[in-house]
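in:
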């Protein structure tokens, strides 16, 4: 896991560090998110070889509302990756927030097919995250820009998933309203992490709302003690600790929580073989 995050930190948005040598085959994971679209390339062993992430505004509450805009960005990202990769990139995977299957699967699949990727896997986001995390018992919570996705894992299997619209966008909206500044400025302030204490106090009620979403979905599972927090919003210092306190459970975040789900999407192309990578 530590090795994976180091590799990822080296290659994310850094084409000069991409290395495609010595692999037999490549697989592409495409994550069309509320705030960002991510493309991750892994080899047949599950090792990350290239990764790009770009801001986007094509999703609302977990649903793609701007197909053309999403396709344009995915096409540009794939052109960038293909421009560096001397081998064909022909197979890919896409994802959806749990419970949005009917609105998302066909749309994201069309996007992949249009950019020349055969769709070999479609997976829900928290389950994708667990292909990286390999949690045996506990919950995985993906707090992205627009939604909070929850997966409960028992005996290494995902037994429950769900998703609700609350995420980093809501934190930034509350911040913007409270400080009487624009959304973009508020989002920047939140990410830069200056005036951490003041900002945290303003967004804390949204973190509590996220906690109550998690609690509602995991409440019915007895014996659950661990919650792994992924997604860009979990980069906010103090969020995991507050969720942990609210839930009365151990909550933790891996390094680079924002890349866990997109990496898992790419790994889903490999089926069961993925678990070798982080075991
Ligand atoms: N360092 C940081 N501190 C706080 N928030 C951050 C940080 N970095 C990113 N974010 C927030 O993370 C969110 C984006 O996370 P992510 O890329 O996981 O979401 P997404 O996949 O686009 O959205 P979703 O999965 O909900 O559709 C944004 O709201 C952004 O402001
Ligand atoms: Mg996401």
């Amino acid at each position: 896991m530590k090795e994976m995050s180091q590799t990822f930190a080296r290659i994310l948005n850094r084409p000069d560090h991409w290395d495609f040598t010595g692999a037999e085959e490549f697989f592409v994971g495409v994550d069309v998110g509320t705030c960002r679209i991510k493309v991750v390339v892994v080899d047949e062993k599950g090792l990350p070889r290239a990764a790009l992430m770009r801001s986007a505004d094509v999703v609302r509450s977990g649903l793609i509302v701007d197909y053309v805009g999403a396709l344009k960005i995915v096409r540009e990202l794939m052109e960038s990756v293909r421009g560096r990769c001397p081998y064909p990139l022909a197979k890919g995977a896409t994802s959806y927030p749990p419970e949005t299957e009917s609105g998302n699967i066909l749309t994201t699949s069309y996007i992949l097919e249009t950019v020349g990727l055969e769709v070999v896997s479609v997976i829900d986001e928290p389950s994708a995250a667990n292909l990286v995390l390999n949690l045996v018992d506990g919950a995985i919570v993906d707090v992205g820009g627009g939604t909070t996705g929850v997966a409960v894992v028992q005996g290494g299997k995902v037994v429950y998933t769900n998703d609700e619209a609350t995420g980093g966008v809501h934190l930034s909206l509350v911040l913007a309203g409270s400080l009487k500044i624009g959304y973009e400025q508020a989002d920047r302030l939140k990410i830069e992490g200056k005036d951490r204490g003041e900002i945290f106090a303003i967004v804390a009620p949204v973190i509590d709302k996220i906690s109550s979403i998690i609690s509602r979905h995991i409440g019915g599972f007895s014996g659950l003690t661990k919650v792994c927090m992924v997604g860009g919003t979990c980069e906010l210092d103090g969020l995991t600790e507050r969720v942990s306190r609210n839930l009365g459970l151990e909550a933790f975040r891996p390094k680079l929580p924002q890349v866990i789900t997109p990496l898992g999407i790419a790994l889903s192309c490999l089926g069961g073989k993925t678990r070798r990578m982080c075991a």
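note: The pocket of magnesium ion (ligand 2) is lined by residues 31, 33, 125, 142, 144, 231, 261 (CB under 6 Å).
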